User: Fold this.
Amino acid sequence: MPIEDYLKAGKIASEVREMVRKKDWIGKSVFDICEEVEREIKKRGAKCAFPVNASINEIAAHYTAEPNDPITIKDTDLVKIDLGAQINGYIADTAVTVCYDVQFDGLVQAAEEGLANAMAMIKTGVKASDIGRTIETTIKQLGFKPIANLSGHSLEQYTIHAGRSIPNIWSIGGFSLAENSAYACEPFVTTNEGGGFVRNGQVKNIFAINSRKKTKNEEADKLLDFIWSNFNMLPFALRWLTKEWDEKKARELLEILVKKKAVQAYPVLIEVNEQRVAQAEHTFIPNEAGVTVTTAAL
Ligand code: MN
Ligand code: MN
Assistant:
């Protein structure tokens, strides 16, 4: 049953997120962080819905560790750890910002409050644009800026971004939340020195299948089959291929698949004024009476 799988995935993602929130990550490499968080998801009986993102400071999203990535967390860093668990393709998508520098407590708090106020207004039929207005108002009242071009999204089986967007600012139009459908809400917040937008960076270390059309390169097609059977349409990282292929070979074949457009590469997203960004995220299912936040803290 989808609903049971959504709840099961949500409970696991929530437990792992709270573990991440409490832990001291200073001095740890992003490689160790991503691998450890992914192990915690799998240990609890779910699969990873996507590679754990560990996006530092002005990188808002979409950074995951490269194999043996040496980048290490400093005590002044602000790190968004975004994780996903899935059961039979039904996804729980949740994030927490960890930061040990008290001068950024307000920024982290603004993302959390934006999310909490959004969750408090959810029920079937609520307009996504009204959720965006609540998030924007909350963040601005606390003296910060929402990131306008990042948003929450509808979820479907094996699909993270299933077509509907839940904005972090007020916007015209939009849709109304459907009964018993799954969505993620994820306010991103920057300071008033920030532009309030992200741009694509050069680095791309998250990938997903675009098409299963054969490339006519036998080795590349073998990798494509492996990706499909292990990750379906969901995102993956190079780290996830290096048990079966050595790193250099995997990189080479992945490059072929990207060039042939069988696989898509996602760039990291960077705040336009290179200001720090905080994030909070929950997955939820609206109903007549209100909402089930599948990733709520237990
Ligand atoms: Mn997420
Ligand atoms: Mn999300």
